[in-house]
Structures are given as C-alpha cells and as structure tokens.
Inverse folding.
C-alpha cells in the first residue's frame, strides 16, 4: 500500500521509533523529521524539522517505562503540531500507560486514566489510536474519537499454526476474573476452544495470591491470555497453578510486555514454554530471551492509519 503526498505525515517520539518506522514503511511513506531531546535539568525539548501546516499528522508514542517522560514527550509533540497548524493530529499510542488506574479502588484515589485522557485532549489531539486498553471503558474518558484495536486477530493465526495438530486439546486460561472477556474473545477466534479462569486475590499492587482454577485444565495444552505482563508474578503463579492441576503444557499470549523487574528472571526460571507478546512496547536486547516471541502489530496500526486517513471503516480489523 502506498500513500503519497504532503497530506499525511508520521512522526515518532523516543519510545516508539522502530514501531513508527515499520508503520511508515508499510504505508510507503518517509518518517517525519523531528527530534526529541532533554535539557540539562531533564525538561523535554521538541523540535519539528519540517512543515506540518494542513497535514494529517500521526504522532506515535507508547507511554511505557519511563512512563512520565514518555507521556510528556507525547503531550509536547502534540502541542508542537497544534501550534504548527497541523490539519488533524492523531495520537497513536500502542501501549496506553496509566490504564490500570481507571477507577477509585479506595478512598481519595485519583482516576489517573481519566486525567491522562484529558491531558492528551487538552494538548491538542483530535483523535487517539491504541490497542487493548486494560479497561475498555477508558474509551469513554475521551471527548474525541478513539479507535481501539484488538490484539486477538493478530495473535490467533500464530496459535492456530502452533497447535494445528491438537487444537481440540487447547484450553484458554484467563489469569483473573477481570480478563474473562479477553479470554473468551481469544477462545472464540480459536474455533471456540474451552476457557478456564484462575481465581486470585491481590493483597497489594504487583502481589497476587492464586486461590483456585475454575474449569478443566487436566492434560490440556494451556494458553494464558491477557493484556499486560508487568512483574510476571501473576503470570508465573497462573502457570504453576494450572500445572499443579495436571495441565500438559503452558504457553502465554500477552499484548503489552511491560516486563518490570524481576519479570525476566521469573519467566526464565518458570515452567512457561513460551511467552508471545506484541511490539507495542519496544523490548531492549537484554529482555529478548529465548522464551519470548515478539509479533509485530505495526502493520495493523498502519492499516488503521490508512483507513482513518481515507475515512474508511475499521470493522474488518477486528475480525
């Protein structure tokens, strides 16, 4: 697919440069010229090195670690293009940080996801494009259009091939009750294989305690499906509990590979056979261990950009 002309431009901040380049290559476009650096005191400095007047601008930036720095880069780039008279600005956020803080879990908590949505809108974004929000209701936090891509269509073909000779033995496992919807959608895409749920309690942030497994996993090939792997505590606990219930093998598919310490060590020493993730967060070399398989969803985002640009429907990207 080729889109040419000055009307569409793709720019990247520091967190998603490779992702943005892959998108641009898919669309047959050059990358927009800009620099994102820091002053001596740590303030972010943005320089846009070409005209954006009247252009359909796409700013690509995941708000992964360091979350606040990457979020500020995104906001300042949006502001720069707003002040440069861009025709329309779309914030392309493969991984939307702060999505886990979507409600008041206890008294006097902020609703950080809503604040971030307001900041992006106030900065000047006209539209947002993202994938697998931790809480789908965050779409309603925005007063601008938001296109919410799903990871299931990108993940399913890999697992259909991987388990082609024994798909009737596969069970999709949701690592907690809140992820049942995602697990059910993934299981449906895999010829409606059965699902099971790990019932867990979380006494504190990044600490989980597995309680039980709801569903039959004995002698089954398990695929754990979720949206975020952070410290990998929940993931590794889920692996252990389904194996203790007699599972034959365990793989996992998780959209956003946050992989904070000590995730890599935990995954390396776990009995997880393979962890499949998307490139919504760019993994440094030290995290690219043999157990981790990365699937690129940049072409999916590029196709979404092409449809936004051409005012075409997005529905076929969800199936």
């Amino acid at each position: 697919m080729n889109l040419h002309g000055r009307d569409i431009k793709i720019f990247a901040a520091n967190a998603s440069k490779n992702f943005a380049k892959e998108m641009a290559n898919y669309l047959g476009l050059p990358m927009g010229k800009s620099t994102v650096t820091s002053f001596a005191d740590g303030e972010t400095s943005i320089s846009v090195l070409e005209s954006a007047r009247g252009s359909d601008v796409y700013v690509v930036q995941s708000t992964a670690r360091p979350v606040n720095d990457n979020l500020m880069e995104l906001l300042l780039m949006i502001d720069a293009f707003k002040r440069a008279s861009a025709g329309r600005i779309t914030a392309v956020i493969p991984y939307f940080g702060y999505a886990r803080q979507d409600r008041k879990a206890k008294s006097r908590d902020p609703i950080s996801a809503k604040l971030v949505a307001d900041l992006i809108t106030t900065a000047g974004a006209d539209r947002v494009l993202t994938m697998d929000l931790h809480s789908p209701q965050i779409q309603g936090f925005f007063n601008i259009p938001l296109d919410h891509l799903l990871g299931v269509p990108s993940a399913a073909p890999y697992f259909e091939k991987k388990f082609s000779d024994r798909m009737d033995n596969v069970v999709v496992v949701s690592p907690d009750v809140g992820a049942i919807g995602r697990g059910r959608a993934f299981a449906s895409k895999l010829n409606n294989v059965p699902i099971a749920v790990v019932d867990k309690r979380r006494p504190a942030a990044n600490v989980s305690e597995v309680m039980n497994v709801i569903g039959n996993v004995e002698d089954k090939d398990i695929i754990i499906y979720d949206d975020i792997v952070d410290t990998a505590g929940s993931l590794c606990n889920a692996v252990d509990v389904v194996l203790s219930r007699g599972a034959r093998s365990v793989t996992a598919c998780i959209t956003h590979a946050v992989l904070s310490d000590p995730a890599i060590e935990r995954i390396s020493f776990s009995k997880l056979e393979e962890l499949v993730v998307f490139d919504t967060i760019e993994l440094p070399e030290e995290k690219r261990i043999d157990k981790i398989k990365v699937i690129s969803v940049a072409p999916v985002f590029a196709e979404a950009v092409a449809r936004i640009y051409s005012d075409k429907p997005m529905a076929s990207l969800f199936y």
